[in-house]
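#structure-requests
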Amino acid sequence: MANPRESELSYPLGDTLPAPGEALEVLPGLRWVRMGLPFALDHINLWLLRDIVDGRDGWTIVDCGIHNDTTKDNWERVFADHLDGLPVLRVIVTHFHPDHLGLGHWLTERWQCRLWISATDYQLARVASASTVGMGGEAAAAFFGSHGLTDPEALEKIRGRASYYPSMVPRVPAAFRRLMDGMTVPIGGHDWRCIVGHGHAPEHISLFSESLGVMISGDMVLPRISTNVSVVDVEPEADPLQLYLESLERLLPLPAETLVLPAHGKPFRGLHARIDQLQEHHRERLAEVLEACTAKPCHAAELLPMMFRRKLDLHQTTFAMGEAVAHLHRLWLGGQLRRMLDADGVYRFSA
């Protein structure tokens, strides 16, 4: 859903966007790259930070784009035209999702450098690239079926997506350097503090530079859309929404004027306002879900038209189902709803 209170945010660069294969300077030594994605969310923002590692001048890349030839070709154009003749020295990845990690193996091999990522997301990526995690296959179809998704065509398509993650992350680098909450990473004369976030990914890492007044937020805070927070089949009783809301609270001590560099959308100011908007969004969704389940027992699939007032494709439906379950679980595990497994094998929630 687009942000109805977007006017409370400001965009220092206006509507200026880097073209594919180009880089736009945000601040001295900080450049913005934008790569395409084959989804309704059609782009990802990637970042270049001027750096010195082990006495060598070069660049650090933050996030990678998905694995495909178009993204590789666009990276090669960036390398040729926007690195000032210097090498890539390391690749930092905020979390394991395909648009962030997909080309991690190619970039680190291309430049003979190290991948930096949280340990949880690294290990999950290794598992997922060899199979799938929460995004397709028989287990995912069964999980969505247990929450009321009965459309045979949709379930068959979900079963057919067992190779969904490996198709965009075919390999994960064999070695990595671990990022942890509170850790400081010196990059190009500035200290960047790692801030862990939960709910969207297991151990998402955002980066904050106090000296620059900049946060690379990954997917934790986006200006126009709300971050996807889903329950998936590998952790079927999870409460990711509570984890996500707690993670937003951890960002409130950052300065209000922080320049936020999101993975999707445009760089913006108004971090505190955006956090308030996201908190309000989820309060409203929770209230709607509670009201619906008070009127009658509900499963997740029947809540989709209420929570998502637009036509959803299959990719969006899987995210929407995960998010509907997340809101039901927050109310269930918070004691406001009870969960019952019906004779048809579907979980229904009631007040």
